[in-house]
Write a structure and sequence with these properties.
rod-shaped, Arp2/3 complex 21 kDa subunit ARPC3, 13 helices, 411 residues, Heat Shock Protein 90, alpha+beta
Length: 411
């Protein structure tokens, strides 16, 4: 094989590899069943075929070959019926553009007999493991090559041995290229899957860590309130609050289900247990209003509401001598999203302070809103919204997808 032929084949391999990496780079994490991804997949494979056919390898002045079988076979096996039809049409249109000749007829016959077999094995290929995919691809490219040899033998008048010898090198290249790119494609997918798994595990670990911070934080504050009542010699209130705390612990502390969801009803019970503890300590200085118009059985991440209410009470209302009221509004909209608003009429914050509270601050011993905001970003890719003005109070709002939209990713 001359150096020129070797370089031409390397060019085609590079072209196909570029198409494959482009697809994997942008769409590997998405399903080919997605309409737009499927269209892009077909266009990219078709473009790969056009490039291969536009830069053929010249074996002899009258014999030029290419490795279009790679994007054709792998595109059909990964994309399905529509992709297979589109790619077959691209090949036939390209051949017909260069004139109606015997080559167009043999190409048509090869596609006519090969494409149905490709589609028969397509579902099996998609759900197979790496070794089975290599075997399926190997058998299909052998079938396509044999099919092509028989068609050329029947239409050329040459002996089958002569046809086999003439096309042996091309078929060898086709088989090798299909196996190489099938293995490469699966290796890339394996790497992406492993990376996704690591990212998911990292996300779950971060969520578990954030929740583990919140729980002892609340426990510490609750015990501090009970201790304050004991110092005031109010044993009855302290006893009632201890029962409230016990109820909270029973319903809210399940360390075996760190990635589970709770219900809106359970979350509201935790809020009420906390409010009971704080009202026993601060009396009439602390008021609370509930405006709930949503199904109490809606699944939500645990411990997202109570820490926000605690922030409103501790930092918004009880930081001043007059106290105030915290209002908890929960509405389920027609779009199935649940909208939460926690607002108070306390001391409020400056704009600079609003921008700072969602940032991590190692100097603070409390958890703060940063922790809650991090959980929202990890779970939903969104952030909580904070509106405040000095002397007027603070409003914190966020949205959660309803049951029909909720995707459980941990938390």
């Amino acid at each position: 094989m001359s150096l020129s032929i070797f370089k031409d084949f390397l060019l085609q391999l590079a072209l196909v590899a570029s198409m494959m990496f482009t697809y994997q780079l942008f769409f590997a994490e998405k399903s080919v069943r997605n309409r737009y991804v499927s269209v892009f997949h077909s266009l990219l494979a078709g473009f790969g075929i056009l490039l291969c056919m536009s830069f053929p390898v010249t074996i002899t002045p009258g014999y030029r070959v290419d490795i279009r079988i790679v994007p054709l076979l792998l595109g059909t096996l990964n994309g399905g019926l529509v992709t297979g039809i589109v790619l077959s049409a691209v090949i036939l249109l390209f051949r017909s553009y260069h004139g109606i000749e015997v080559g167009l007829f043999t190409t048509f016959l090869n596609l006519l007999f090969s494409m149905p077999v490709f589609l028969i094995f397509q579902k099996m290929f998609v759900h197979a493991n790496k070794k089975c995919k290599l075997l399926i691809a190997f058998l299909l490219v052998l079938y396509n090559s044999l099919n092509g040899l028989i068609i050329v033998f029947l239409t050329s008048g040459q002996s089958f041995l002569a046809v086999f010898q003439e096309h042996f090198f091309h078929n060898l290249i086709n088989v090798s290229a299909v196996l190489f790119f099938t293995a490469l494609d699966e290796t890339i997918k394996d790497m992406i899957r492993k990376n996704q798994k690591l990212q998911a595990e990292k996300k779950d670990a971060e969520i578990a860590f954030l929740r583990s911070q919140i729980k002892p934080h609340f426990l510490y504050n609750a015990l501090s309130s009970i201790a304050a009542l004991c110092l005031e010699d109010d044993a009855r209130k302290a006893g009632n609050l201890t029962l409230d705390l016990s109820k909270y612990l029973r319903s809210g502390f399940d360390f075996k289900q760190m990635d589970s969801f709770t219900t809106l009803e359970n979350e509201l019970e935790l809020v009420k247990a906390y409010i009971n503890i704080e009202q026993a300590r601060f009396g009439d200085r602390l008021g609370v209003e509930y405006d709930v118009d949503a199904s109490l059985g809606i699944p939500i991440p645990p411990l997202i509401l109570q820490p926000l209410v605690e922030n409103a009470v501790r930092h918004g209302l009880m930081s001043g001598p007059q106290g105030g009221t915290v209002k908890i509004t929960i509405k389920q909209g027609a779009d199935n999203f649940i909208r939460f608003i926690i607002e108070d009429n306390g001391c409020g914050m400056s704009e600079r302070k609003c921008n700072e509270i969602l940032k991590p601050n190692e100097a603070k011993k409390g958890i703060g809103l940063w922790n809650i905001n991090q959980r929202f970003q990890l779970l939903y890719g969104t952030s909580i919204r904070v509106e405040s003005a000095e002397g007027q109070g603070t409003k914190i709002s966020f949205e959660l997808p309803g049951p029909a939209r909720l995707v459980k990713t941990g938390g």
